[in-house]
Amino acid sequence: MSTLLPLLGQEKDIYLVKYTQTDETTIIRSLELNFCIHMDSQSPTMTSMHIEKLADEFDSKTAQEVLKWALDTFGTKIALASSFGAEDVVIIDMMANLDKNRSRVFTLDTGRLNQETYDVMDAIRARYWIPIEVYFPDQKEVEEMVRPRGMNLMYESVENRKLCCEIRKVHPLNRALSTLDGWITGLRRDQVATRATTKKIEIDTGHGGIVKVNPLADWTSDMVWDYIHKNKIPYNALHDKGFPSIGCEPCTRAIKPGEDPRAGRWWWEDAAQKECGLHFDPSKKRHQ
Question: Scanning 84, 103, 121, 163, which has its CA 20 to 30 A from the CA of 31?
Answer without folding.
Answer: 103
